[in-house]
């Protein structure tokens, strides 16, 4: 596989690679990395919204089942986000000091972890799916439909994790082209198959909700295998597990897993409480959560640019460049989030109708939709600073800050909503408090300067 122009050649000296990395830490370079990440990140939530729109035509119960089941699948796969974010930080450090082989070794080790973890997840989730949805939904029909969907879709988890690992090391070495091709090809295939298999169009079998799951698995398989082929080709025979390197990744991953788990406990709790307020409430909550996930990942594109550039700058010993990147990315992310907030405010009467025609669901969407508009500017800053701290390898701080924010803000509001009947207003108030608490802790950490001296 040829090396792209974005990747330092293996025979370059460390000093040359570091100098090139510093020269590329410009607004244009940030825009280029963010643009590539934007396409990759936007592809999956766009597909998920398309999936919701396709399945939503089956009825409110199917829409609710897909919303809850896709949330669980997201929880399962994103528990191992260190395969992407941790690998980006570690491979970017290697890239910054001119060690391309070390960066590829990070990708190979992360891929081995993806295969092992994916197999374990399948073995655990397939038999326990009915019990998971009984607890989450409290509604037999929704739980049964969600179980059927997840038992198919879970077989795509190892491929999802392989895509995470591949994205991680490619971002670290600033390869901006291949991740776009692999992810867009896989999800594009899923997008074509989804309506065919769900509704039986063009002679395809009409599988209903399960057709959505099969489309998901097929597309993820194509993308995951493409990343595997690339890392094996780049490794040039160095494909055996490097257990010492895997151990180092797991130590960083431990903190990121706890951080991710705190996110997912909050979101699962929110879905469980929303389901207690009726089918319309849980369907409305899940639709707006999918929109939230979409815009969050759009903002995360700038954060990923910060990860790659901050990691490379710190690997080269250029602390001033890392601080400059942090400042520029935060300003750009805030501006982008403000524009998004305006778009969703103006589109309030039109955009929700893309997902459902149910009058009860559309009526319930009003409350979380306006919370979404208010939260976006705050999220722009929070996500940018997340990217800076992840790029520096400051995973332990992010773990503690996120967990504390969840325990103090989000979870109390969610469960008080159930106890006092606050409905979706209480649930989304908790999310807003969660964001504000994270913002406060991040600003204090950035100002301290301690994030620039983390050893990986």
Keywords:
456 residues, mainly alpha, globular, disordered N terminus, MATE family efflux transporter, membrane, antiporter activity
Textual characterization of the structure:
This protein has 15 helices and no strands. It is mainly α and 456 residues long. The protein has one domain (14-453). Helix 4 (85-96) runs parallel beside helix 11. It is globular and about 55 Å long. The model is unreliable at 1-23 (pLDDT under 50).
Nutshell version of this structure?
The protein is mainly α and 456 residues long. The chain has helices spanning 14-23, 27-56, 60-78, 85-96, 100-137, 140-153, 157-172, 178-199, 209-235, 243-275, 279-315, 319-346, 359-391, 395-420, 423-448. It has one domain (14-453).
- Approximate shape: globular
Number of self-contained structural domains: 1
What's the overall average pLDDT, rounded? 85
Structural class: mainly alpha
Profile the largest sheet: none
| CA-atom Rg in angstroms | 21 Å
Low-confidence stretches: 1-23
Terminal residue distance: 29 Å
Give the amount of beta strand, in percent. Answer: under 5%
Q: Which sequence of SSEs, written as H and E, runs from N to C?
A: HHHHHHHHHHHHHHH
Tally of individual helices: 15
Helicity level:
over 70%
Compute the number of strand runs. 0
How is this fold's topology laid out?
Elements: H1 14-23, H2 27-56, H3 60-78, H4 85-96, H5 100-137, H6 140-153, H7 157-172, H8 178-199, H9 209-235, H10 243-275, H11 279-315, H12 319-346, H13 359-391, H14 395-420, H15 423-448
Helix pairs in contact: 2-3, 2-8, 2-11, 3-6, 3-10, 3-11, 4-5, 4-7, 4-11, 5-6, 5-7, 5-9, 5-10, 6-9, 7-9, 8-9, 10-11, 10-14, 11-12, 11-13, 12-13, 13-15, 14-15
